[in-house]
Design goal:
The complex is a heterodimer of chains A (about 350) and B (about 300). With about 350 residues, chain A is mainly alpha-helical. Chain A has 13 helices and no strands. The longest helix of chain A is centred in the last third of the chain and has 28 residues. With about 300 residues, chain B is mainly alpha-helical. In chain B, helix 6 packs antiparallel against helix 11. The longest helix of chain B has about 35 residues. The chains are: A mainly alpha (about 350), B mainly alpha (about 300). The interface between A and B is large, with 55 and 56 residues.
Chain lengths: ~350, ~300
């Protein structure tokens, strides 16, 4: 059943997509073909899929661990942005850097940046009881504005014809490519490594056990002496760090500089990825590629059919709707019976 | 002197326009959250309201029908959310995000043929006599009907939540759904109605953007206002009156930032835009840390799934 509902949700999304585009007067099969199949026709397309899946998987793996502990970090987009800024700062300040240590240092700084940004909701939650959904969301907008302020201001490339972009990162600050002729970079392997590490943490480590107990039964966890505050800190730092890594991987990989838009909403889409992947690291690896296809397909139909890129959002939204709806089959047993006599209601 | 006054009046007028869509969305979401539901799909509902209101106004030629269509579109979106979270007991955070993604995408698809289409802005309704008062007249009493409606909604919601029995039931449902259920209230029905109201308000807020603020349709034209409205509800600590003040303050910051940009102070504008979000975090911390002042706090059941044991 755990695997049946995502498949069912995917099938329903495709079916509804067919009906929707038919109703709107487009040739539905052509849309679906250009959306889901055409992008993967060649090696470059497949590599692009993996390039787009990388940040999604990195963010989603961290978020899923948090969700399991009932910690709702929805600010991965902001943590991703700050990670890109913290790591990218090195390349901006040392545009001629050639040290082999530069790239590792940037990656570490990226992780630290994401962690720092996630530490704020963690502190406010554990110290003051402030809802982490709201704080992490607010901080996302602060991060995106900070990015905008930096690329429009002090970090703007002086030789860049006044475009709001930083200098192009030097080769020493760029992730090596895995396959020539594509944009597939080392980050894809980092994402796989994160998946394996997260699987180990959740399935084999005490930390993972604590996360699950706290998520399923806070009272039992408390009775067993587990500290909810400690787990809140750890899962937020972990998810923030992974989101920060996703950010620095984006700017040192496919983008190669810092631009006003680093991510087309990867941090938010990663929440869908986490759910579609059943909050399981291996499931997330698969789900990340499915959602990456929705971005890729959105770009393709924009070019070939002139449809707005927002169509990717339609598919993403529908997929999550159907997935959540199908989950009712997993979580509850539906019984068909006459409703119990309800108590009389006051008007 | 008079020229200076005119400039001030003009700036204040633009602040009122900037605040109105925020106010609609926030007042709707406030009722939703008071009933214990967190709907993060505001942005999507506003966009659907904006595009459907615009299309309806263009097709029928009637702004009133446009606004009604916008409310209906917002409610339709809210119904999807309510069905998933209240009937199928899905996670509210995930469903709300999906609603936003879906609404952003679908609105850009629906509005494809209407980009750059002109439409007549909502007519101004001058209040007789009062609008003749110098300075304050044009400032306060010469707006389109939606501006008056937004303020009226604040008063109505404040009265409803604080002074009526159904309003108290709604708050009870938001504070403890099990207790409300136990004494015989229909938790799910109350929440359905609250969510639908929130959808209608968000839709109208969107329609204000596409029919009055900038009378046209552009992809993604809400530009994050749904999220600001969400922040606004927290900032207002779930009080309608404070939402009004907050909306005008947030609207004011938006306008100030535009003017700062015009004066060439480009960098300052982003830092200024951060203020609403930072202040919201601060308010959230202040109201969360004080355990004794429960009146200020988030509704206790905010975002929780209600599944009656029986």
């Amino acid at each position: 059943m755990v695997l049946v509902t995502p498949a069912l949700a995917l099938a329903l999304t495709l079916l509804t997509g067919l009906l929707l585009f038919g109703a709107m007067g487009y040739a539905p099969l052509a849309v679906l073909f250009h959306f889901f199949i055409a992008p993967l026709a060649d090696l470059y397309g497949v590599a692009e899929l993996m390039v787009k899946a990388t940040p999604l998987v990195l963010c989603a793996v961290g978020l899923a661990i948090g969700f399991r502990a009932n910690v709702w970090n929805i600010g991965a987009e902001g943590q991703l942005t700050v990670g890109a800024l913290a790591g990218g700062a090195l390349a901006v300040w040392f545009p001629d850097g050639a040290s082999p240590l530069m790239l590792p240092a940037m990656l570490l700084l990226g992780i630290a940046g994401g962690m720092a940004w996630a530490a704020v909701p963690a502190f406010l939650k554990t110290r003051f009881g402030a809802n982490e959904i709201l704080t992490s969301l607010m901080l996302t907008y602060v991060a995106v504005l900070l990015l905008s302020a930096l690329v429009h201001g002090p970090w703007r490339d002086p030789g860049g014809y006044n475009f709001p972009e930083t200098v192009l990162f030097p080769p020493a600050a760029t992730l090596p490519l895995l396959v020539d002729g594509t944009r597939l970079h080392l980050g894809a392997l980092l994402a796989v490594a994160a998946v394996i590490a997260a699987w180990f943490l959740l399935a084999r480590a005490v930390f993972g056990f604590e996360v699950k107990v706290i998520g399923l039964s806070p009272a039992a966890a408390d009775y067993a002496g587990m500290s909810a505050a400690r787990i809140t800190w750890l899962v937020l730092l972990l998810s923030g760090g992974l989101a920060g890594l996703a950010g620095i991987v984006e700017v040192t990989g496919p983008i190669g500089q810092i631009q006003p838009t680093i991510s087309p909403g990867y941090g938010f889409t990663a929440i869908i990825v986490a759910f579609l992947g059943r909050l399981h690291p291996l499931g997330i690896l698969v789900a990340g590629h499915i959602l990456a296809l929705s971005y890729l397909g959105g770009e393709t139909v924009q070019v070939t059919l002139g449809l707005p890129q927002g169509i990717a959002g339609v598919f993403q939204g529908m997929l999550l709707f159907f997935l959540l709806a199908c989950d009712v089959l997993l979580k509850y047993r539906i019984r068909f019976s006459a409703p119990a006599a309800s108590p009389s209601k006051p008007a | 002197m008079t020229a200076g006054l005119d400039t001030v009046a003009l700036v204040l007028l633009t602040i009122i326009s900037a605040a109105t869509p925020l106010l609609f969305a926030a007042v709707g979401e406030l009722v939703v959250e008071k009933s214990g539901v967190l709907n993060l799909g505001l942005e999507g509902m506003m966009l659907m309201g904006a595009v459907c209101g615009f299309i309806a106004a263009v097709v029928t030629g009637s702004a009133a029908l446009g606004v009604m269509a916008a409310a209906a579109a917002g409610m339709a979106m809210a119904l999807v959310f309510a069905f998933l979270t209240l009937t199928l007991l899905a996670n509210q955070v995930a469903t709300g995000l999906a609603l936003t993604l879906f609404g952003v995408g679908l609105s850009s698809l629906l509005g494809l043929d209407y980009v750059g289409f002109p439409v007549e802005a909502l007519p101004k309704v001058a209040v007789p006599l009062l609008s003749q008062v110098p300075f304050f007249g044009p400032l306060l009493f010469n707006h389109d009907a939606l501006v008056y409606l937004s303020v009226a909604m604040v008063v109505a919601v404040g009265w409803f939540l604080g002074r009526t029995r159904p309003g108290m039931v709604l708050r009870a449902v938001g504070e403890s759904h099990h207790a409300a259920h136990a004494i015989g209230h229909n938790v799910v029905l109350v929440r359905y109605l609250a969510v639908l109201f929130g959808g209608a308000m968000a839709g109208i807020g969107g329609a204000f953007l596409s029919l009055s603020y900038t009378p046209m349709w552009a992809e993604n034209m809400t530009a994050g206002r749904g999220w600001i409205a969400l922040a606004l509800v927290v900032f207002a600590s779930w009080r309608p009156g404070r939402a009004l003040a907050g909306a005008y303050m947030f609207g004011g910051i938006t306008i100030l930032q535009l003017h700062a940009q015009g004066l060439g102070a480009d960098i300052a504008s982003q830092y200024m835009s951060m203020l609403p979000y930072l202040v919201t975090v601060l308010v959230l911390v202040l109201i969360s840390r004080d355990t004794y002042r429960a009146k200020l706090k988030a509704p206790a059941c905010l975002g929780r799934i209600f599944h009656p044991a029986a």
